[in-house]
Design goal:
Elements lengths: L8 E4 L7 E4 L4 H9 L4 E9 L11 E9 L4 H19 L13 H8 L13 E2 L10 H8 L3 E7 L8 H11 L8 E5 L5 E2 L8 H11 L6 E7 L1 H18 L13
Antiparallel strand pairs: 1-2, 3-4, 5-6, 6-9, 7-8, 7-9
């Protein structure tokens, strides 16, 4: 066994009762031998075999780029991996011509997408309207702001007529396991009027100001999330990815790398 951060698969020995083999989860010994013998930088494309719970991007056997570098800074690490990935993708993917990766800060990623690994192949960015709803009579928003929470929205363009109350209720149920207790909504109609259960809590001036701020126009669907920072971002981020897939807003074969 070569204990590391991941769990190894255990295999019982047929000829040695009550004894087990531990299957190595990665070629860790190669890496250690390189480092001990004086190579201060190295990488490997390596198969890993780990006894971990399944995730969307992880199965028992997977391939990773493993890198060990001494005497480096952040910029060198980013540039090294960027050149590596660009070279591989441009060589093996005919449809792709990669150049330098875009960069955004963690804060910007959380504000715009609600997570630290955003899918930038489509829009539906999160927009903060907390400052615009401070004086409304909607109790949910009032209580959220009083508890130092925030209100974010997603604007889904030109779909309001296609979304029945049943479909919106399904979206409400979808976000609950992701942190949000519910999902307010509004359909933008002619002259910027809202069709919504919460419209009565807003003056015409307030709805107009909010719509202009989030660039919502006729036949757009506005989805509101209210709660703590983490719950709101988590819930709307999951909803954003769900809508992007359901509405086919991106090409599933497109590669968008991002630092």
């Amino acid at each position: 066994s070569t204990p590391e951060g991941a769990r190894e698969f255990l295999v019982p020995s047929r000829i040695n009762p009550k004894e087990f083999y531990a299957l190595p989860q990665s070629p860790q010994l190669f890496k250690q031998l390189f480092m001990i013998s004086g190579f201060d930088r190295y990488y490997q494309i390596v198969k890993c075999f780990r006894d971990e719970d399944l995730r969307a991007d992880r199965q028992p056997e997977f391939t990773q780029i493993d890198c060990e570098m001494a005497f480096v800074n952040q910029e060198l690490i980013l540039n090294t991996f960027e050149k590596f990935i660009i070279n591989v993708v441009n060589r093996f993917f005919d449809k792709e011509i990669l150049t330098n990766f875009p960069r955004i800060t963690y804060h910007e990623s959380m504000e715009r997408y609600g997570c630290d690994k955003p899918d930038t192949r489509f829009g539906l960015e999160l927009k903060d309207i907390s400052s615009l709803v401070q004086d409304t009579n909607f109790r949910v928003f009032q209580d959220t702001l009083a508890a130092k929470g925030l209100i974010n929205v997603i604007v889904v363009k030109d779909v309001a007529k296609d979304f029945s109350r049943k479909k919106i209720d399904e979206l409400t149920e979808f976000v609950k396991p992701h942190g949000l207790k519910g999902l307010a909504w509004a359909k933008v109609q002619e002259e910027g009027k809202w069709q919504s259960p919460i419209a009565k809590f807003f003056s015409p001036e307030q709805t107009k100001e909010i719509s202009e701020h989030i660039e919502a126009t006729e036949n757009d669907l506005i989805l509101f999330g209210a709660g703590s920072y983490s719950d709101t971002k988590s819930g709307l981020s999951a909803l954003r990815n769900h809508l992007g897939k359901e509405l086919k807003l991106y090409n599933s074969e497109q590669l968008n790398f991002l630092w």
